[in-house]
Write a structure and sequence with these properties.
Its main location: membrane. It is found in: Cytoplasmic vesicle membrane; Membrane, Coated pit. It is a peripheral membrane protein. Clathrin is the major protein of the polyhedral coat of coated pits and vesicles. The chain is mostly helical. It contains eight helices and two strands; from the N terminus they run H-H-H-H-H-E-E-H-H-H. The protein has three domains: 69 residues, no CATH class; 63 residues; 54 residues, no CATH class. Helices cover 53% and strands 6% of the residues. A hairpin with a 2-residue loop joins strand 1 and strand 2. The longest helix is centred in the middle third of the chain and has 66 residues. The radius of gyration is 68 Å and the shape is elongated. 2% of the residues are buried.
Length: 253
């Protein structure tokens, strides 16, 4: 505040003048304060084409026009020569011929109500959904019918496949059970015959019954394996005993 007071002293420090009416002329008051602040340097800020002495009285200021009105009119209507007008028009035409104005599509504002209030939305005319043509509607209906028919055919084929698979599985188990029963019956018959021949002590000699349990057609017996020693001489002896009905032990127990 001290710098402001030194630059702009109060009006009470200046003696009143008989030719100055501060209450009636605020412009004179402003000029007087400027003159007091600038002092001798006030002449540096004056216009060389005008008078160098600025009077603080209202009578002397009447000879000067209004600064505000003059500057405003000069700013709005600057003086332009004829040659500059012609050049400006030609430049304007040349610019618009090279760069035509761009048309901006108008947009439509739509208000929608939500919990926060009405919010404007800018929607261009391109975003408006057009009505679907009749041919497109018919095509969609045909596609729905084709898809429904295809699904129905697929479901029927699926049921048929499951039925065929179920019948095939049932037939397989039926044949399997029948074959299993026949095999079991055959094995049972073979077992009974084997036991009957084994326990028969009346048919033939003892050596003949023994030779039935031994495979004499090969070099090895059924009860032996290939890692045992050679028993060919033993088989020859069994064959000789089988042929001789009077061999020792041929009569049984």
């Amino acid at each position: 505040m001290s710098n402001f007071d030194s630059d702009f002293p109060p009006l009470e420090d200046f003696p009143p003048s008989s030719n100055t009416n501060l209450e009636s002329d605020p412009t004179a008051d402003f000029l007087a304060r400027e003159q007091a602040v600038l002092g001798e340097d006030a002449a540096l800020f004056s216009n060389t084409t005008n008078h160098t002495i600025i009077s603080t009285t209202s009578n002397e200021l009447e000879g000067f026009p209004d600064i505000t009105s003059t500057s405003t009119s000069n700013a709005l209507n600057p003086p332009v020569s004829n040659s500059s007008n012609v050049n400006s028009v030609s430049d304007y035409d040349a610019f618009h011929s090279e760069f035509p104005p761009v048309e901006i599509e108008s947009s439509t504002q739509v208000l929608y109500n939500n919990s926060n209030g009405d919010i404007p939305l800018s929607l261009s005319s391109d975003n408006i959904e057009e009505e679907e043509p009749e041919i497109i509607r018919q095509w969609r209906e045909q596609q729905r019918e084709i898809i429904a028919q295809r699904d129905e055919t697929s479901e029927a084929k699926k049921r048929e496949t499951l039925s065929i698979a179920r019948d095939a599985i049932d037939k397989f188990y039926e044949e399997y059970n029948e074959k299993k029963g026949r095999t079991h019956e055959q094995n049972k018959q073979d077992e009974e015959e084997f036991l009957r021949e084994r326990d028969d002590l009346t048919s033939g000699t003892s050596w003949q019954r023994i030779c039935k349990q031994v495979d004499l057609s090969t070099a090895q017996s059924k009860t032996t394996n290939k890692h045992t020693k050679d028993v060919s001489r033993f088989k020859e002896m069994l064959l000789s005993l089988k042929k001789d009905e009077n061999a020792p032990g041929a009569g049984g127990y």
